[in-house]
Automatic annotation (TrEMBL):
Species of provenance: Algoriphagus confluentis
Organismal lineage: Bacteria, Pseudomonadati, Bacteroidota, Cytophagia, Cytophagales
Membrane topology: Multi-pass membrane protein
Keywords from the UniProt entry: Cell membrane, Membrane, Transmembrane, Transmembrane helix, Transport
Protein name stated in the entry: Gluconate transporter
One Pfam family recorded for the sequence: GntP_permease
Transmembrane regions: 30-47, 54-76, 96-122, 134-154, 174-197, 218-241, 253-278, 298-316, 336-365, 377-400, 420-436
Similarity section: Belongs to the GntP permease family.
Subcellular location: Cell membrane
Length: 437
């Protein structure tokens, strides 16, 4: 009976988002309160449980997500993203243009949130398409595959960062493992898949062609790449230093301090403020306005993360987590596959990758300790599942259709199939990595 009530709680969440078209944050709040009452939590404790869950999860994540948004916005506004894209185009040449687009999406997609990366880079793909007289979908798909993978797999993007916090995983290790899986996933769903899409007719509007900055206004390629990748370098580097470091070592406290994801992102943002801003004669008021706009862009993401934390806390406080654990343990299925499957089903129902990942985390997080599974790989498994088969209820589906100006049928054959490839190949990569770590 308890298990059915949990499923009913999730069904309420899905129906509120899909059928009632309610805001996901409000949907999470209503579903969390309904779950608490149905599962027997005393009425006077429901609100406290919701508040505790929201605060606990946001406390771990707000620095990472907000500073990540600010960094991504500055990379875009300064022209660093344009410089990286242009350099990779020249480096790879026309013959390997799809590889250039894939690597552009990977490098620029790390600091940029998905929607920002889409709006910024897709017009560049159209410009390349017109310049080399190549099909727009063929050129653009590797870029979109890379943006999707970074969005679903790699911190500091909201969903993987939130999953790291929920599962008490190591952000540096998750990022390292994520790269090992992301690169082959992008190659298969991007440059290898793209040639099958050459016959799809697309007529991108002239409005969506990029209006690049003049060359002399762009930062140098070294400055652009180093600044965009600094969070990755710091997270992986400090994690490597802490692997065999005795906690009683005199340097341990400082290394663990600099390994904290919030500190890493703050350092990266401060460096970017200098390297892409002050050093290039941008006014401090202009930089701060850029950061203010960036926080507005991710305000709803923060609220959705908070709502997911509330649902998780209700499941924990009602004691239902133990019952879920006992039920899941009777399933003859690998924990990583089970987590991927739950996430994929919610993703197909709800449409949002972030909501799908965080909802699954709310179910599984309280029982990770009882599962024989690497928490870093669990993050990546859920990340892969959260990208499964984007269709009519996903905003990304419609952004792709309208920007590329393709039919619904061709959108399903290209965009939806690419997202499905990312999800399936990502899971295979996680399972292979699980054999060795």
């Amino acid at each position: 009976m308890t298990f059915l009530l949990v499923l009913l709680s999730i069904a309420i969440l899905v129906l509120l988002i899909v059928w009632a078209k309610l805001n996901p944050f409000l949907s999470f709040l209503i579903a969390s309160i309904a779950a608490g009452l149905m599962l027997g939590l005393p009425a006077d404790q429901v609100a406290r449980s919701v508040q505790k869950g929201m605060g606990a999860l946001l406390g771990d994540l707000v620095i990472v997500i907000v500073t990540g948004a600010m960094l991504g916005k500055l990379v875009a506004e300064s022209g660093a993203a344009q410089r990286i894209a242009g350099f990779l185009m020249r480096f790879f040449g026309e013959k390997y243009i799809t590889w250039a687009m894939a690597f552009t999406g990977l490098i620029v997609g790390i600091p940029l949130f998905y929607n920002v990366g889409f709006v910024l880079l897709v017009p560049l793909a159209f410009t390349v398409s017109y310049q080399f007289r190549l099909p727009a979908v063929y050129v653009g798909m590797p870029l979109l595959a890379a943006l999707s993978v970074t969005h679903g797999f790699l911190p500091p993007h909201p969903s993987p960062a939130a999953l790291v916090a929920q599962f008490d995983a190591n952000m540096g290790l998750t990022l390292f493992y994520g790269f090992l899986i992301a690169i082959p996933t992008i190659i298969i769903a991007g440059p290898i898949f793209a040639p099958f899409l050459k016959k799809i007719k697309a007529a991108p509007l002239q409005t969506f062609q990029a209006e690049p900055k003049p060359e002399h206004e762009l930062p140098s390629i070294g400055n652009s790449i180093f600044t965009a990748l600094l969070p990755v370098l710091l997270l992986v580097g400090t994690t490597a230093l802490t692997l065999d470091l005795p906690k009683e070592s005199p340097a341990a406290a400082w290394i663990f301090f600099f390994a904290d994801p919030g500190v890493v992102m703050l350092i990266s943002l401060l460096y970017a403020t200098f390297s892409l801003g002050i050093r290039r004669k941008m006014r401090m008021s202009q930089l701060m306005e850029t950061y203010t706009v960036a926080t507005k862009d991710i305000a709803m993401i923060l609220l959705i993360v908070a709502g997911a934390g509330a649902l998780k806390q209700v499941f924990t406080d009602t004691g239902v987590s133990q019952i879920i654990a006992e039920n899941l343990q009777t399933w003859e299925m690998h924990p990583l596959i089970l987590a991927w499957l739950i996430t994929a089903v919610i993703r197909v129902c709800v449409g949002s990758a972030t909501v799908a990942g965080l909802t699954t985390a709310g179910i599984i997080a309280p029982i990770v300790g009882t599962m024989d599974v690497n928490p870093n790989l669990l993050v990546l498994s859920i990340g892969a599942g959260s990208l499964m088969f984007s269709h009519f209820n996903d905003g990304g589906f419609w952004m792709y259709k309208e920007f590329f100006n393709v039919s619904i049928k061709d959108t399903l054959k290209s965009w939806s199939l690419m997202e499905t490839l990312v999800a399936v190949v990502g899971l295979i990569g996680v399972l292979i990595l699980d054999l060795f770590v």
